[in-house]
Predict the 3D structure of the following.
Amino acid sequence: MNYVDDLDPTTIDAILITHNHIDHTGLLPKMVKQGYRNPIYMTEITKELLPRFLMDSADQQEDNAKYLQDKFPGDEWKFNVLYHREDVERTINLCHGMKYQKTVEILPGVKVTFFVNGHILGASMILVQCTAYSRKPLNFLFTGDYRLKNPFYEVPELPDWLKKMELIMIHESTYGTTDSSNIKVCFKNHLLEGFERGQDILIGAFAQARMQEILFELKKMQDECLIPEEYKIYVDGPLGIKTNLAYEEILKTFNPVNSNFMPRDVQIVDPKSREKFFSFEGKKILITTSGMLSNGPAKIYVPMFLERENAMIHLTGYAAEETLARTLLEAKRAETVHIGSKPYQKKAVIKTTREKTSHATRDEMLGFINKFTNIVFLAINHGASEVESNFVETIQTQCPRIQRVDILNRDYVYCIYQFGNKEDKFSNIIVKRMPAKMQILSPKEKSYIKQKQKRKKRHEEKLMRKAAKRKSKQNNQF
Ligand SMILES: [Zn+2]
Ligand SMILES: [Zn+2]
C-alpha cells in the first residue's frame, strides 16, 4: 500500500502529525520526495523524537530492499525503497514544533490546538477549527492514537468548552473489541516466576515508549527489592538506547519527577559482543528491539534464548502476522522453528501480555466519546476491519448522542457543508460520502453533485439577498 500514489502531495497546504509512530509519520519523506514543501506541524516533543525514527525507517528500507532483491533474483525491480536519508533531512526542515493547549492560526481561517494525549510521550489530539465567510465554524477533533493515562506523566482532563463544542471527530478503534477487563495484568508476576526458576529473560520491546516503560517498571521492582542480586539488566537496540536518553532529557522539563526512570546498573551491550552474550556476568534480563522480534538485535538473541531450557522470551505488545513474535507464540514446545533459513528447537518459555498497550480499550473509548455532547459526525479509523465495524455497532447502541458514525476508508472522501450562519442558534451541517476517485462516478452520482451545486448556489444567492435586505433596512433606519 505504501507504493500507491492516490494523493498529490503538492496540493496539500499543511500536514498535522498527532504523534511519533511510524504508521503516522512514515510516509512524510515520500511526500517530500514527491514535491511537498509546506509546513508539517506537531508538538515540540514529537519534533524532537521524529528525526531518528524517520532515519531508521530509511535505513531499514534499504536493508529490507537489499535482502529481498537478493532473495528474489529477477524480481529486483519490485523491491524499491520509498525514500532515502536526504528526503528525511528535507522533511525534518519542514517540521514545526507546537506547544500544548496553545491555539495557532496556521492558514487564513484555520486554527489548530494540540491537547495532551497519554498514548506516548509527545502525543496529541488535534483540534482543527475552520471558518469561512459568515458561516459558523467547522470543528474537527483528531484523537490520533490515544490513551488517557501514561506511566510517565498525567493527562489533564480536556476543557469543558471542547466537550460541548459542535464536533466532527476522527477517532481510533485499535481496541474496539477489547475491554479493560479482558486484559490480564501479569508482566510482573511472569518476571517473578522467572526469577524463582532462575531463568534468563529476554524482553522484546519497541524502541519508543515500550522499552522505557519496561525499564521504569524494572526500576520500581529494584526499589521494592524484587529483583534477585544475581540478575543483571542488559539493554540492546541502537534506536531504543537513543530513545532512552531522549526520554530522560525531555522528561527533565516535561515531567521531572519521572525523568530518572532508568534502573541501577543497566549495561548496554556492545553490538560486537552480542554473539558472546551468554558469557557475560550473572543471570540475564535483556531488553531489546524490535518489539515483534523480526528486526534489530532480537534476530541475533532469539535463537540463543530459544534453544535454552531455562529461559523465557517475553513479548510486550501486539505480534503481527508473519513476524518472529507470532511464529514463536504459535509454535508448540519442542517444535522446530525456522529463523531465517536455520531450524531451532523451541525449548524456552514464551510469554506475552497486553497490559503495556498504549491504546485505550473499548470501555475507555466509549467513556471518552460519551463525554462529548455535540458530535455531529464520528469517523472511525485505525483498526482491523472487523474490529472497526464491530466498534461502529457498539457506538450505535451505546452512544445515543452521536448523530452519525461511519468508518473512514481510503476509497471515499467526505464533503462536509456548514450552512449555518454565525448568528444562527443551530448549525446546519451536511456530510456527504463520495468515491475518492471522481472519474468513477456514475452518471446518476454526477447529476446529483451538479444538482447539489446548483442548490448550493441558489442558497448562497438567497443568503446574499437576505443580507442586502437587512443592510438596506438598517440604512433606512438611519
Ligand atoms: Zn501510535
Ligand atoms: Zn497508530
